[in-house]
Design goal:
Keywords: Amino-acid biosynthesis, Cytoplasm, Isomerase, Lysine biosynthesis. By secondary structure, the chain is of the alpha+beta class. The protein folds into two domains: 4-114 and 267-283, Diaminopimelate Epimerase, Chain A, domain 1 (Roll); 122-259, Diaminopimelate Epimerase, Chain A, domain 1 (Roll). The protein has five helices and 18 strands. The protein has helices at residues 29-36, 74-86, 172-182, 221-233, 276-283, and strands at residues 4-10, 13-18, 47-53, 58-63, 69-70, 94-99, 102-108, 115-122, 142-146, 149-157, 161-166, 193-201, 204-211, 215-217, 240-245, 248-254, 259-265, 267-273. It has an 18-stranded mixed sheet that branches. A hairpin with a 6-residue loop joins strand 7 and strand 8 (115-122). The model has no long low-confidence stretch (mean pLDDT 97). The protein binds the ligand N[C@@H](CCC[C@H](N)C(=O)O)C(=O)O. The ligand N[C@@H](CCC[C@H](N)C(=O)O)C(=O)O is lined by residues 13, 46, 64, 70, 73-76, 160, 193, 211-214, 217, 220-223. Residues 13, 46, 64, 70, 73-76, 160, 193, 211-214, 217, 220-223 line the site of the ligand N[C@@H](CCC[C@H](N)C(=O)O)C(=O)O.
Length: 285
């Protein structure tokens, strides 16, 4: 049986869709790692498995390129929304999908489904919900050591865990240097996604991202929401802002109850049919 994968990206954060209704393969951690590998596989920042069809809902499973499972991906949900339209699974303009973090609502903002708004769920700064070790508290502006250097850190969950570091200068190099230490720091039992945040003005922020299970990425939807949430919580921005990332810009709006709306674009790259040799190798893993 052939294995086909569809590749999309959300502002340069690229994902492969593995549709279980069209493909048969046991996705072991090793198989996921090989598929996402940029040299030996097709290459991507993650694998989206779905739609897993239930009675009245479609479920999306989100896998990082190291084979671990994520509760949520903002770009992943938008990409999945576009795939569901392209593959004819949905006809409505507004519907919801299930992820490990709960229900996400998807709205198409144009006919082609390339611009999508997603209700991402609620922000929480509470340590037990992120999760983080230590006494229960909101993790706001705490000093944490990453690689023996102290940083002021605000931590937040938007379904998955984030650690936001507010700085006056940010770069890819610094995101990688800090991220390598913060990702698996002891205080984050489920590991963490890291964002370096630069506040441009009250409606614009810039971030550099180091994702849990993926490393440096050009964009991340949940990271954009987490950084926007942290900036707003610290009183640095208005509730509605543009989040500038190396791969492009997301619009993020924080509502009064702490729920977050994210709007951004999705691009389609193409369809990949894996070689017989590759399928054999994946089946052996
Ligand atoms: N790229 C994503 C986030 C993917 C999951 C993340 N690496 C995690 O493990 O939580 C996004 O667009 O949000």
């Amino acid at each position: 049986m052939k294995i086909t994968l569809e590749k999309y990206h959300g502002l340069g954060n690229d994902y492969l869709i593995f549709d279980p209704n069209k493909n048969e393969l046991k996705l072991t951690k090793e198989a996921v790692r090989l598929i996402c590998n940029r040299n030996f596989g097709v290459g991507s920042d993650g694998l989206l498995v779905g739609p897993i069809l239930g009675e009245d809902k479609m479920t999306l499973k989100i896998l990082n390129p190291d084979g671990s499972e994520a509760e949520l991906s903002g770009n992943g949900v938008r990409i999945f929304g576009k795939y569901l339209k392209d593959a004819g699974y949905v006809q409505k303009n507004h519907f919801s999908v299930n992820t490990l973090s709960g229900e996400q609502q998807i709205h198409y903002l144009n006919e082609e489904g390339t611009r999508i708004k997603v209700s991402m769920g609620h922000l929480s700064f509470w340590s037990d919900e992120i999760p983080m070790t230590g006494p229960r508290r909101e993790v706001l502006n705490e000093t944490m050591m990453f690689g023996s250097i102290p940083y002021r850190v605000t931590c937040v969950s938007i379904g998955n865990p984030h650690c936001v570091i507010w700085l006056s200068d940010i770069s890819k190099d610094l995101a990688c240097r800090i991220g390598r230490h913060s990702e698996a720091a002891e205080c984050f039992p489920e590991k963490v996604n890291t964002e370096l945040l630069r506040v441009v003005d009250r409606t614009n922020i810039e971030i550099e991202i180091y994702e849990r299970g993926a490393g440096y990425t050009l964009a991340s939807g949940t990271s954009g929401c987490a950084a926007a949430g942290a900036a707003y919580k610290m009183g640095l921005t208005d509730p509605k802002m543009y989040v500038h990332m190396p791969g492009g810009v997301l619009e993020v709006e924080i509502e009064e109850d702490g729920s977050v709306l994210m709007t951004g674009d999705v691009g389609y790259v193409g369809k990949f049919t894996l070689s017989h040799e590759m399928v054999e190798q994946l089946r052996s893993l």
